[in-house]
Amino acid sequence: MSKEQNLKILKVICLLLVAVVIFISGRTFQEHRNYQEEVVLGPGVTAVMTLGDYFEPIKGTINDSNIYFIDSGEPGPTVMVIGRSHPEEPATNLTAQILVENAEIETGRLIVAISANRSASTSTRPGEGYPLYYSVDTEWGSKTFRMGDRWTHPLDSWPDPEVYVHYPSRQMLSYADIRNQNRTWPGRADGSITEQTNYAFINLINQEGVELFIDLHTAELEYSVNNCIVTHERGQDIASMAAMTLTFEQFEYPIGVEFSPPALRGLSHREVGDHTDAISLLFEAPTMILDRIRGATNEELLMGGDDPFVRRAGEYGLLYVPIPEDGWPMVTRVARHVETFTEVLKQWNFNYPDNQIMVSGLPNYAEIKANGIGYYYRNPADYSEDRIRYE
Amino acid sequence: MLTLMNTIVNYSYYLFTLLISLLLIREIIKTKDIYEIVLYSIILVPFILRSLRLK
Known about the structure:
A: Aminopeptidase, 2 domains, eight-stranded mixed sheet, 16 strands
């Protein structure tokens, strides 16, 4: 066989290999982007809207997220909770889904968005070795969720500017933060999809008369704002009392309070409080998979929440959060968020006795720690299609 | 205006990646250097994934 023929064969083989690699990787990316998580509508859910109902340009886009209403029909405040603002912090959507599948309400109204930035949940960080999926064990099998990223998927928002100028403050922030939902509040109608998403949420808050807004997050142990409730000025009483009560009565490790800095723009605890009538709070819990000094980045670290390198940093006093014997597993993070939510509502009722919200059906911290997260997810096979939604 | 400029850059980017993909395929066909064939094939993968809006 001549050299020229050999070259031709090599070229064909290389192009075939390219096609195979593209097919395998492309299919993996597509499956992840289109993966559907089942959500069973709990007994309290009375309606499901989508974010596009509050701002037409979002309708039909990837961020036209489900908005779950748990309405007592009785007078009381409207409270809103969002998860997955940063989808690489999965304790947030797991917590929000527990609320949707379990919460019942006697007075007032609860609104929940499990995936506040759905686009960001369809991308992950392969360059950092992030797992594409994670699973929660339940009594009826394993329930699998998409792992996401901090930023809106570049397929939905690209290019980034050299410097992101926040609207309306004109504060200059990091370029990628134009795709960061928690740097783009209060959003704008003619902005990027992330800004439009937040503009739609602000419309929702105003139109539905939300009085208390809670944004769920988790943070690396190297980050100083952790294990805390971040609060707008108008929420300081509720946040402080909730944190003190939780620290004294519930949690093995304290939860603190951080006051939202007026000069730091774009964050929900600042902008929602400034641009709507709602009191805005943000919950943080520790998650080691976000620490830069972590070791193997896999599902075990994500769910188990323990890493020898992060522990070592703790021994040198380089962290802002103590590390329990069993680390900071997902179950602890979710249990803290659910219990903090419940306690904040108790403090709301204490502060506003004439405007109370009474929520039942939610497990407490000790119950979640004892039973696991999966115990509180319903089996979709037991419910008709009209009681199931997809995230 | 910002959104319009972003949209123009976005579409230009995809046209550009498609053009680069075609140029790389042409170079693979034309070259007689084994290393260039392998190198261009590796480079081609992300460009095609982007052209197809898969990543």
